[in-house]
Amino acid sequence: MEIKKFSDFCDQVLPDFNKFLDNKLKTEIKQATLRDAMLYSLDAGGKRVRPMLFLAVAYSSSIKLDKLSQFYDIAGAIELVHTYSLIHDDLPEMDDSDYRRGKLSNHKQFGVGPAVLAGDGLLTQAFYWIAKSNLSTDKRMAAVRILAHNAGPMGMVAGQMTDITMENKVLTEDELTTLHREKTADLITAAVTTGAFCAGHELSKNLVQYANDIGLAFQLKDDLNDADDGEDSNKNTFPNLIGKEATEAKLKDLVKDALNAVLKENEFDKNLLVSFLDYFKE
Ligand code: GRG
Q1: CATH topology classification for 6-280
Q2: For a substitution probing ligand 1, which of 183, 236, 280, 282 has the most ligand atoms within 8 Å of its CB?
């Protein structure tokens, strides 16, 4: 294990992974408008947190840096699913956002119909990439199962449905936690657990705990940033429900729990996963 900091790991891996993502989609998608709309959001400057976490877990279980590219199809599939979810989330009938990552949102750039199809295309292509990857059948099946379970109607899609249908209703803390776990944490958990499976491990309780905690922490941090920017106070967020200070305390507790969980972990080198927690301190 040579790299100890998550940011150094990303510096090493991200340029190559980004090239892979862009080239693969460019060569596969023949319909020009669809290709442009899919690439517009895929190459819009996302942080690639989920695929980097996936690859970091594989690296932390002793897959060498120069062997990580065997997992790019799966890491890429996770990013395709994330990108689709953001395109659809921005649509007028969902969050109705005109901008994403400082650029026009997909439907503002291409129109609602093309944006829906760009999202559909990314979601479907994700499972094509997993099916076509060179990993063993067991690993590919695990990746399909985990991703479909956590991103579909048993996970992210369910959370999004609760979000849009409960928009003007006040949720309890438990209901809001479930919403955020499904909408945001489940895909992050899928990235971490798929990384473990692909590197040849059984699911570990501590790793799942770590993944769930950072997944929820991710949403809380995003909501705290939005609250600082004066975002809509009617939205179902922790800062709106319990206040900013209580949300900051909850975020700290989650990061502490994630740290305790990962420190109990024996199957993986802990350095990168511990270092990822710095993201919540920035
Ligand atoms: C449309 C089925 C469907 C689901 C949408 C992901 C999602 C569900 C909604 C996004 C709402 C949101 C902004 C949640 C906060 C946490 C989050 C997912 C932030 C965006 O992820 P980042 O920070 O984005 O990884 P980048 O731009 O870096 O890729």
Answers
A1: Farnesyl Diphosphate Synthase (1.10.600)
A2: 183
